[in-house]
Amino acid sequence: EELVSFVKEFGHARVPQKFPSNPSLGKWVVNQRQRYKRDLRGDSSSNMTADQIRLLNEVGFEWEGNNSQPW
């Protein structure tokens, strides 16, 4: 829900790790990227479902972090 609000406000889903307006969203995004990488490696500890991946893809989630956004 917070990611969808971010996308509506900024027009993209490139949430920086250190997002001053919502630090918990930045941390959540980092966590999702880490879980996804574990899932790709076949690590069952990721607990990420295909449905979660699909939903994140639908909002334009960026799986590779790019923290070059000036916040």
Short description:
Helix content is 51%, strand content 0%. It contains 3 helices and no strands.
Give a description of the structure.
With 71 residues, this protein is mainly alpha-helical. The protein contains 3 helices and no strands.
Key attributes of the depicted protein:
globular, mainly alpha, 3 helices, 71 residues, 0% strand
Topology record:
Blueprint: H1 2-10, H2 23-40, H3 50-58
Q: Estimate what percentage of residues fall within beta strands.
A: under 5%
Low-confidence stretches: none
What does the overall shape look like? globular
Ends: how far apart?
21 Å
Order of helices and strands: HHH
Q: Averaged pLDDT, please?
A: 89
Radius of gyration from the alpha-carbon trace, in angstroms: 12 Å
In DSSP terms (H or I, runs of 4 or more residues), the helix count works out at 3
Structural class: mainly alpha
Count of extended strands: 0
Helix content: 40-55%
Summarize the main sheet: none
